[in-house]
Write a structure and sequence with these properties.
The chain is mainly beta and 329 residues long. It is 3% helix and 29% strand. Strands 8, 10, 11, 13, 14, 16, 19 and 20 form an eight-stranded mixed beta sheet that branches. A hairpin with a 5-residue loop joins strand 17 and strand 18. The longest helix is centred in the middle third of the chain and has 11 residues. It is elongated, with a radius of gyration of 26 Å.
Amino acid sequence: SSARTLRHLRIGGNSYRELSFLTPLTALEYLEAGNGELREIGPLASLTRLEHLQLNDAALRDIAPLASLRSLKWLDLEGNSIEDLAPLANLSRLEYLNLNRNQLRHIDALAGLPVLAWLELRENLLEVEQDSPELKVIGALLARDVAVSYRPQLRPRYRGSAAVHLPAGAAGRVFRTAPADYFTVLNPAGGWRIKSFTVAHTEAINRDYLREVGRYDTGTGQFAWYALPGPRQPGAAEAFPYTVTFTHPRSIQLGLSVQAWPAYGEDGPRLLYLSRVTLYNIHTRSSYTVELAPPEPPSPGAAGRENAAGRPGAGRGEPRGSLRVEGIE
């Protein structure tokens, strides 16, 4: 039939979510099927004569079926949600590859493509600073005269861990994160907002009380302190690590307010800090989890900032309110 000899097909811009109707078209050499809601591409595995494939701006995560398409020379996967490039590692005839606007963190699978001439990697989550593994792969490709476009990236930049250092003898007092130690998103224009955070405690006995969270909200344009919800009392064993998830991610900065347990054993120095922060990109709808190590102890006299009134409250220019969250894990 004519369908079995069809070599060239454009079906982009449609609402197809899968491509089972293409299975009989084994003679296809050119296919455009992007700009739609495509989520599953299993049927493409049988189209082994494909040389040109365009699957841009769809909803793809799993590209495993592409591993069998050894005739591919031109592949456009821009604007998907792809993280794993292993299925492309053995496409030895690939000359052009567009991976812009995905969720890539690693590209080592591309290092061995022998005839690759042009590679697009912009707006992913790649670490492309000096000596990073991804930059080394890019450098090796450039050394082979591969044209590689890889800036800008959407990887979030941040600093701080919202640490609160409680000194020895802190019993009953309230301490807040020093402003210089706030966890801060440094590239909010890229769309990154704080979706959830986890507070860790460095001691096995953890009756210190997490009272408030300070956050800069892009909706209000100000930094404010919010009381944490729930029937929680000072002295009750706190369930650390302690996780809070925001229903609507709008914050780009976090600080903590902690009341020391009045009868805390030997009352030695200890530390509360953010051990994990999950960021959400409001533009790409992707997530990125940051794992933070305990910060170094402060220099003498530089422990957590004690609230002037000895209790959590609004400092001048620091509003208070109730923290509305989706859940506490």
